[in-house]
Design goal:
The chain is α/β, with parallel strands linked by helices and 326 residues long. The chain contains 12 helices and 10 strands. It has a 10-stranded mixed sheet, sandwiched between helices.
Amino acid sequence: MERQILVPLDGSPLAELALPQAVAMAQAIGSGLTLIRVIRPTAAHEIIGFHSKSRDLRWMDEIGPAHEYLTAVAGRLRATGLQVSTRIEEGDPAERIVARADYERSIALIAMATHGRSGLRRWLMGSVAEKVLYATPKPLLLVRIRKETTPQEIGALTYTRILVPLDVSSLAEQALDAARTIAAATGAALTLVSVTPTFEDLASIADGLSLDWIEDEYKAQQREAASYLAEKEKQLAEQGIPVGSRVLAGDPAEEILRAATLERADLIVMATHGRSGIQRLWYGSVASRIIQAAELPVLLIRPVESEEGAAEDSAAHRAESMTQGG
């Protein structure tokens, strides 16, 4: 079964600005594209009921234009040599996107813009993307779209440098498997980044402890991060993947974004971690802040936490599933 990337579209030109990234990712992992358009029912028709005549007429009025739209977009995408299919569904967009991704085993990841309409509805896709992020276990490629975003030619984009934030944990490391897969397919170089607290950060939380202890702890965390990244660099280099690393100190989101600019990265690949209660991302709000501020696309991998090393096994399986069917 050929892998597929699920691409939600809302019929707007802004939402379509995510297509070049979806095509580049599909070419990198050897997948096809599935375009999905979700028609949201009005409150009145939800009350009337699914089998009402008026609801059926409304559905017929909207399904025709939606079909024509998706057919036209699919035609442009097939010119790149990709296999493209389309789907039209009715319901809450986020719920239908997540349900489709869960139901179709062939869906390797979801690629979508964070918002797709102007004016008062400009945050529609942003709201949908946020709901999808918290609900789906599938990898999610988010493309932050602004009004000033310059359209890119579909099929011309490729990845040259990928930034991978790591926090010296097996959970964050699961993003490295996906990044390795993309780099191996495209020839892109990887930059591994680990951010530690600054001396001032440690001092602010180490009330009553000596400055010597704080300095020793700061240096120890820097050494641990450097040793960890050096080990990962060696493993990747042995696989023929160009790789470098940076150990930074400061606010994690700010330092990661700064490194992406300095490295001229065109993709960030990082892990998220869903905890109990209010869903939170790796390093708390770091991934969320990066999504909001990054000028480049972010591929989010939700890691699997398990006992006795099962997380590492799951990471390898997830990376393999991005390139193979079944």
